[in-house]
Specification:
The relative contact order is 0.09. This protein has a three-stranded antiparallel beta sheet with strand order 1-2-3, with no helix packed on it. The chain folds into two domains: 96 residues; 173 residues, hpI Integrase, Chain A (Orthogonal Bundle), CATH 1.10.443. The protein is built from twelve helices and three strands; from the N terminus they run H-H-H-H-H-H-H-E-E-E-H-H-H-H-H. The longest helix is centred in the last third of the chain and has 25 residues. The N and C termini lie far apart (72 Å).
């Protein structure tokens, strides 16, 4: 077997994840991103052979990734690295299965407080929404669905034209993680953005009933979750903010909790299958109270 650097094995790693591990395409980008980071880490240390990967090097990489990030992020990277080490062992480049000797970081349940956008940041985003080009109309609708409803990336991607009832002024989210459909009021801003998107972006008479479609292809195929993800990323870069689609869910949940909504109500809106997933947002409320108390005590 040819002795090569880790960076030269990316395509083979992809095939391993799809063929041997039987993962779906959606789970690949994160693992491949970690693969590239590890490859760069090894190249910077002049490790030009995948056979020379050691636990010492791996722990050095993990320590750098964990610095300044949450425990959950550290555990995610750890899981990705375990996949890489299993791949190297499976392909015979590592005689020893280092993944079995890698100690996982412990993540306590509800340990991390979800990060949310501030009120000022939301105002800034809403003021930055435009309606000039077809792309603007698509971006406007996508972002309002995340900002106003806190939907998951997959939920937005799978929305159908029939999910919007303009007569009853409702939006029905059918394909949810907990399999429980949710009927939401169609907010005026969202309805206006929907009408603009249908008029300026989405052609009439398409075979697909998906709401979001591609713009470059003649067939106007249904947009993938990666395409919607890129819309969010481009918008946040344009307004100079950092975050993701998930951060809008955290923002909505934080606002609901701080406004006095019950955990059961938040659980229903967000579509959590377990109350444990919702309970973490209660910590946000306590954190806010603690900050107020600290500021108050400083003034005494």
């Amino acid at each position: 077997m040819k002795d090569v650097a880790l960076s030269e094995l990316e395509d083979e790693f992809r095939r391993y994840l799809l063929g041997v591990r039987a993962l779906n395409e959606r789970s690949l980008p994160r693992r491949v991103k970690t693969f590239r980071r590890l490859a760069r880490f090894l190249a910077d240390r002049r490790v030009r052979s995948a056979r020379r990967v050691s636990l010492e090097l791996v722990y050095g990489f993990l320590e750098g990734c964990a610095r300044g990030n949450s425990r959950r992020h550290a555990k995610t990277v750890h899981e990705d690295v375990r996949s890489i080490l299993r791949f190297l062992h499976f392909t015979g480049r590592l005689r020893k299965d280092l993944a079995a000797h890698l100690i996982a970081p412990h993540v306590w349940r509800l340990a991390d407080v979800p990060e949310a956008f501030s009120g000022k940041e939301l105002t800034r985003m809403l003021a930055s929404l435009r309606a000039e080009t077809p792309y603007d109309h698509r971006e406007r609708l996508v972002m309002l669905l995340f900002i106003c409803y806190g939907l998951r990336l997959g939920e937005v991607t799978r929305l159908e034209l029939g999910d919007f009832d303009l007569r009853m002024k409702t939006l029905t989210v059918l394909e949810r993680k907990n399999a429980m459909p949710l009927v939401l009021p169609l907010l005026p801003a969202v309805e206006e953005a929907l009408r603009g998107y249908l008029e300026h972006f989405r052609p009439v008479g398409l075979k697909t009933t998906r709401l979001f479609v591609t713009i470059k292809r003649r067939s106007r195929a249904p947009a993938t979750w990666q395409a919607i993800h890129e819309v969010v990323n481009k918008f946040l870069r344009r307004v100079g903010l950092k975050g993701s689609a998930t951060k809008f869910r955290h923002t909505l949940a934080t606002h609901l909790i701080n406004s006095g909504a019950t955990l059961e109500a938040v659980q229903a809106v967000l579509g959590h299958g377990s109350s444990d997933s919702t309970r973490v947002y209660a910590k946000v409320h306590w954190e806010a109270l603690r900050e107020v108390a600290d500021n108050y005590s400083m003034d005494l």
